[in-house]
């Protein structure tokens, strides 16, 4: 079997080692990064990167690459081999990035790899989105699913009431799964795009389709009963956890309004 994990980046930055990793340059930079492929080749939606974020690379890989297993990760967020690596140095993290042997062992037994769930504890996924973003996008998403994929509506409502989810738009899956998920996801998002006017959105809020897609992964995975395992996500840079926690609480209780 052939394996390709696409590492999405808009910066010319260090990439994980190994033949399974394919650095993908996204965004409007004129210069090509050495060793990267670009998502603006072949059939693509590269120009929508400000709104779709890393999903432009997912679309490109779905439409243009041939591999038995495809995956999507980020230059700042990578799967580990199994350890959480909290507090580890950057070098230690790179030493523990998911490697081909571990990947092969997992994919021989399962259909997909997802990041360990992120917990919100005091909020549901719906309320967290509402406190962090403009809710109209998620409201329209529900309408689109009700109209185009009514069999998914019960699962959508169920997922939105939860307090945890597989976030970050990270997935590694057999091509059949990767392609089927991509086809459904971009069909839903494409219809939402037609219905929501984002011309007045801030730069942050204009990333609407990248935000919404994070909440749709579990809907599709569970509706289709995909056999998956979870791996920890390593953050390959400094995180200001105090600021993140403060913003989470502030938005929840209305001290800070969404952009």
From TrEMBL:
Positions of the DUF4422 domain: 5-225
Record InterPro entries: DUF4422
Protein's name in the database: Putative capsular biosynthesis protein
């Amino acid at each position: 079997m052939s394996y390709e994990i696409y590492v999405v980046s808009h910066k010319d930055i260090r990439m994980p080692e190994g033949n399974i990793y394919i650095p993908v340059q996204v965004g409007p930079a004129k210069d090509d990064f050495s060793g990267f492929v670009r998502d603006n080749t072949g059939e693509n939606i590269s120009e929508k990167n400000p709104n779709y974020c890393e999903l432009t690379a997912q679309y490109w890989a779905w439409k243009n690459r041939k591999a038995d297993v495809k995956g999507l990760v980020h230059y700042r967020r990578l799967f580990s081999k199994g350890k959480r690596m909290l507090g580890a140095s950057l070098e230690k993290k790179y030493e523990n990035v998911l490697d081909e042997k571990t990947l092969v062992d997992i994919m021989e037994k399962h259909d997909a790899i997802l990041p360990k769930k992120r917990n919100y504890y005091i909020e549901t996924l719906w309320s967290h989105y509402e406190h962090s973003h403009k809710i109209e996008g998620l409201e329209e998403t529900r309408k689109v699913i009700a109209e185009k994929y009514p069999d998914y509506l019960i699962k959508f409502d169920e997922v939105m009431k939860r307090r945890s989810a597989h976030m970050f738009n990270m997935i590694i899956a057999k091509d059949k799964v990767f392609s089927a998920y991509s086809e459904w996801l971009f069909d839903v998002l494409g219809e939402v795009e037609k219905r929501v006017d984002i011309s007045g959105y801030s730069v942050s809020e204009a990333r609407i389709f990248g935000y919404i897609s994070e909440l749709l992964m579990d809907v599709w995975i569970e509706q289709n009963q995909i056999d998956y395992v979870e791996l920890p996500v390593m953050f390959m840079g400094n995180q200001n956890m105090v600021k993140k926690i403060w913003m989470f609480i502030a938005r929840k209780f209305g001290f800070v309004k969404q952009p």
